[in-house]
Design a protein that fits this description.
The chain is mainly α. It has one domain. It contains 11 helices and 2 strands. Helix 1 packs antiparallel against helix 2, helix 2 packs antiparallel against helix 8 and helix 5 runs parallel beside helix 7.
């Protein structure tokens, strides 16, 4: 590309780059709307807002890489922006949701994921060089939705919260769908279909059909974990840890 073409394209690329950052930041707005809905006891609307923030997070990274935002706007740290929005939407909003939905025996249990995820988000190797999440990637919004939709007992909610909080510290690899080397398209399409299905599940007015549909929708989270176990070579990581302990 010639110098004149670069000069012409630069303003357009800056507009695109700022648009991507604005798109990422909009997730914080929808997270705030979810909190307002929780305060109004409208958990269904809050749940849909949580799913919307997940959809934004699923695609904004690919958009940023396509536009080359780090080159066009080098003074804006897109990763820091993404982490700020993610911590609000994937940690703070869902723990407030769980407390409001009565999914826990006591609101104090929300301290577990907040503290664990504070550790997880602050780690330099939270995302590995081969594009995996290291440790449970703080999908507390997924847990919050299922505890509510499946109407699990508060004791079960406590157990899941404790177990996954511990999982944040265990260095097992979890897939990063938008950066997968294999099965990326099928995994991302599956995630999109799961999101739409969850919107539909939340919209079902009757409890029994909603619970049944929620159980069926667990197929995708199970697929995510199974793929993480396989591609993340959990067996090797566990075996290596046992050898070190021995």
């Amino acid at each position: 590309m010639s110098a004149s073409e670069l000069a012409t394209a630069a303003p357009q690329r800056k507009i695109l780059a700022w648009s991507v950052h604005l798109f990422t930041a909009s997730g914080g707005v929808f997270g705030a709307l979810a909190l307002v809905a929780i305060a109004r006891d409208d958990l269904a609307f809050a749940g849909i807002m949580m799913l919307l923030t997940m959809a934004i997070d699923a695609v904004d990274g690919s958009m940023a890489r396509a536009v080359g935002v780090s080159e066009v706007l080098p003074k804006v740290d897109g990763r820091r922006l993404d982490d700020i929005i993610d911590f609000v939407n994937f940690v703070i909003v869902p723990v407030v949701f769980m407390a409001a939905a009565g999914s826990l025996t006591h609101w104090f249990f929300i301290a577990l994921p907040v503290l664990a995820s504070s550790y997880g988000f602050s780690q330099f190797d939270a995302k590995t060089e081969d594009d995996f999440f290291l440790g449970f990637p703080s999908y507390w919004n997924v847990l919050a939705l299922y505890l509510w939709l499946l109407e699990l007992s508060p004791a079960a909610g406590d157990a899941w919260l404790l177990g996954l909080s511990i999982a944040v510290f265990i260095p097992l690899k979890y897939i990063y769908p938008s950066k997968m080397q294999v099965l990326r398209i099928s995994t991302c399409v599956g995630g999109a279909l799961w999101t739409l299905a969850m919107v539909w599940v939340i919209s079902i007015p009757d409890a029994a059909p909603r619970i049944n549909a929620a159980w069926i929708s667990l197929v995708y989270p199970a697929y995510y974990i199974a793929l993480s176990v396989w591609l993340g070579r959990w067996h090797e990581a566990i075996a290596g840890g046992l050898r070190r302990e021995g």
